Amino acid sequence: MRITKFSVTNYKVFSEKFTIDFSADSIAILTGRNNTGKSTILEAINCFFVKDTKTNTIASDCFSDTNNEIILEAEFLSGEESHTFFKKYQAGSLPKYYGTDTKEIKAKHPEKDIFDEIINNKPYYITPAMTTEDINQLIQTMYSQIIKSKLEKIELEIADEDPDYEIMKREYDQIRKAYPIFLKKLKKSIDLVLDKVSNDVSGDLRKLFSNDELALEVLGGESDGFSASDLVKSTSSSIVIDSNRQKQMPLANQGTGLQRMSLIYLIQNMIQNKLLGNTEEKLLLIDEPEAFLHPEAVRALSRSLYEIGARMPLMISTHSPVLIDLAEKHTSIQVFRVGENKAIQLYKSATTQFDDNDIKNMKILNYVDSYINEFFFADKIVIVEGDTEYIAFKHFFKEKNVNIHIIRARGKATICTLMKILNQFNTNYDVIHDVDNNYKFSSKTLQAQLTNCKNILKLKISNNIRIFSSVSNFEEAIGIGEIENSKKTQTIYNILNEVATSGVYKEARKKVENLFDIITNQKEINQLDDGFKGITSEQDYEDFFIGLIAEKKKEEREQQEQVNNEENVK
Q1: Can you give the pLDDT at residue 430?
Q2: Residues 37, 18: contact at Cβ < 8 Å?
Q3: 520 shares a domain with 402
Q4: Beta strands per DSSP E along 184-298
Q5: CATH of the domain at 520
Q6: What share of the chain is helix, strand, coil (3-state, %, to 5)?
Q7: 248 φ, ψ to 5°?
Q8: How far is CA 123 from CA 145, 242, 342, 360, in A?
Q9: Could you tell me the residue range of the domain that residue 503 belongs to?
Q10: Tens of pLDDT along 488-539?
Q11: Do 230 and 216 contact (CB within 8 A), yes or no?
């Protein structure tokens, strides 16, 4: 029974109904700025499964409007059958559950058995602010799940690699047979005592009230026999950590980072070793898993989360782009940005859209720039090809305090890979790349550059994508000519910070700033300076190349003819 949709109304920041849809994918990642409700969603999902008491129910200050109900709505799918359940809170009272038919769930409700199955499958919920009691309870839940899974295998006679399996099976069978017999003997013995108590008290009551018809009967409880849950209830577990400082220290007394990583790794390992039984319907919720971890640990955590997500539904809220690994197999990840009324799906993995070169490019990007995935967290995105453009845009990004994310592709092939990724969600983004129609190139190289440019244009799938070209490269476009690679960084720094006073550098700075303004403020492309071109068709590229390629071919033929003539003379 998998959760497919969850809605929350009137809870904390969600005064209006907020909904998030889950696909069959295993990993859902929530992003967004602070105080948008990422953690609240996870908290609300966990609250849906919690059995409330007067001491642990939702506090009155969690109601957006105390005059209205908090409503937690969850939709579950089992095969082709869908079930929707509601949990409704009134300020000052315990909540009630309602079924798909909107009737309160009581003993005879038609969905009672399905509801009980769902509620008893409470998610694992890991937060940055877990108390000692929370940690111990989660540990106990996992331990109980392991025992339950083991006993279910024995009951269903599913053999495993445990050398004591046959012995435990025989002993378990003996316990199950002996337990009801023992209960009957115990009940019979107790019932004799209770009968005497009932007769004595009845006699006293008849005398007291002068009523010979009065009778009191103490009834002994009935038992349905023995089940796995009886053993689960009688067991407990704890986790201790040994270090060079202290032995047998409870996990709950350790640092927050160690606590969370230990719990996550425990779940990962238990899943891999199939200790937790069927985990396909067990949800794992982790609020800001990167909290309290150093950068290297966050990268290791990312790998672990993907391994967990391949085996059980996983939902996290995060501020860390490192946790979104584009080089992973794209079969189990959704990325949502939390909006006002719904979680907007930014990205959904699709393996078929990426070839081997794309995967290779993404891995290289992750190695070179570990924060490449910040575009998942940005309002506006700009892809640039080289270092000079990247430095220039970073400068104005900070100077003008504009909220954009600049991705440095370092090549046209990688630009295509990034566009494929960005095209999977509806966003505005711009691309700036060099035309590279330099006369020094051969006709073959120029033809290849034209093909590269056209490949970029093919990925412009909507008007929300704009492509700008620098002719023939960014340095030439801003009027400073060819610059050695070793001097590019210092040169652009001088231009941007007006270290140099020459007219050429001042004019270059104006051109860079104008390009930045056109991109960030969505100005018309006809406002571009000479040296830059807004690309709308293949003809725009061909205008840069066709004549030049023909000229180069003619020059190359003449050079070859000259070489041939010289060889004939010899």
Answers
A1: 93
A2: yes
A3: yes
A4: 240-241, 249-250, 284-287
A5: 3.40.50
A6: 45, 15, 35
A7: 55, 40
A8: 12, 28, 22, 36
A9: 378-560
A10: 888 888 888 866 556 788 889 999 999 999 988 888 888 899 999 999 999 9
A11: no
pTM: 0.64
Distance separating alpha carbons of residues 23 and 44, to the nearest angstrom: 19
The answer as to whether 547 is a domain residue is yes
> CA 397 to CA 382: how far, in whole Å?
11
398 and 532: one domain?
yes
Q: Is residue 534 part of a domain?
A: yes
Residue with tokens 């990993």: 27
- The rounded distance, in Å, linking the Cα atoms of 349 and 86 is 30
**Cα–Cα distance measured from residue 111 to residue 525, given in angstroms and rounded to the nearest whole number:** 60
Number of domains in the chain: 2
Whether 428 maps to a domain, the answer reads yes
Instruction: For 332-449, list the strands marked E by DSSP.
Output: 333-338, 343-348, 380-384, 404-408, 429-434
Same domain, 473 and 417: yes
458 domain residue, yes or no: yes
398 with 538, same domain: the answer is yes
The span from the CA of 294 to the CA of 255, in Å, is 13
Residue 33 sits in the same domain as residue 87: yes
DSSP 528: P
